[in-house]
Amino acid sequence: MAFSFAAFCFMLALVLTLALIFFAVWRIVAFDEIRRESNNPSDSPETGKQQQIHKIEKLCRMLKKLIVPEHFIHCLFCLMFLCSHQWLALLANIPLLLFNLWRFLRSPTKGPRGRFDPSCVVRPHVLAVCSREAWCKLGFYLLSLFYYLYSMVYNLMSPI
Q1: TM segments (predicted)?
Q2: 3-state SS of the chain: helix, strand, coil percent to 5?
């Protein structure tokens, strides 16, 4: 049994992937909440509408806070796998890294106030795209979790 740098990278990737899964689940729940808030008719025209707008703005602010940590963690994965010469893991992560970069530069929810602008997110087609993206990322992170777990055990059990 050997503890190598590759095993350490997979251990760290395993723990950080759990954080990314949490981010993806939170994003799915937030988009579902935005969809529900934007579709519900309010009881009283003034106070109900203001509460809905305030809640949607709050959710969008929280979603904006998840962007940088998610992209940083994913860049860290790619850097770790590059340094540990784990080419298959690096190759599997590069498409999502490029997608995150492309999405960061060109987003369907970029309004006058940046990414996840409340006035843009409530549009049904934008909300559908964002929800689909969150579900796809959740699937990718779940598959990655099992791959990292397998690779960690494999690297721990293999001789140096």
Answers
A1: 71-99, 138-157
A2: 80, 0, 15
Check: CB of residue 92 under 8 Å from CB of residue 40. Answer: no
Residue type, 89: A
Catalogue the E-assigned strands of the chain: none
Evaluate whether 127 touches 121 at the Cβ level (below 8 Å): yes
Distance between terminal CA atoms of the chain?
8
Sign of the alpha-carbon dihedral angle for 139, 33, 126, 17: negative
Q: Measuring CA to CA, which residue among 113, 92, 114 is closest to residue 105?
A: 114
Can you give the pTM of this predicted structure?
A: 0.85
pLDDT digits over 93-112, tens only?
999 999 988 887 876 556 55
Distance CA 117, CA 34 (A): 12
